[in-house]
Amino acid sequence: MATQPIPDGQHSITPYLGIKDAARAIDFYKAAFGATEMFRLDAPDGRIGHAELKIGDSSLMLADPCDQAGGLTSSQSLQGSAIGLHLYVEDVDATFAQALKAGATQVNAVQNQFYGDRSGTLKDPFGNLWFVATHVEDVSVEEIRARAAKMFSPQ
Asked: Considering the entire predicted model, what is its pTM?
């Protein structure tokens, strides 16, 4: 059997996070978002050299930053977050509450958005932003633009 260029269960692009105390982050993602740990490679010093998680049908890779990571740093070392992760779920209200209970901080409350999602924004304990959403309305591109123009126009 030939090796596949993209392994089974993977997509073309996968976020890779540098997180100080990656082992604690894995536990948080399990509690907050129902993540499943697919693989973990512990470094000799006890840190996480590489880990792969599944959340829903998507993968997330992470590791403790180290010299071998080619410059990968952590969100904890930044003034803000350099990335945001968008997570579609079946029930945004339940998942948002679960993440808060697990230790996330609310940035923006869950609400219906002009583009057809019900979503809210969280910051995880490691400095990463999560946009958690459930799609609730199919909206045409034209309608999204009209709603956006109305929302951003001066009153």
From this structure: 0.85
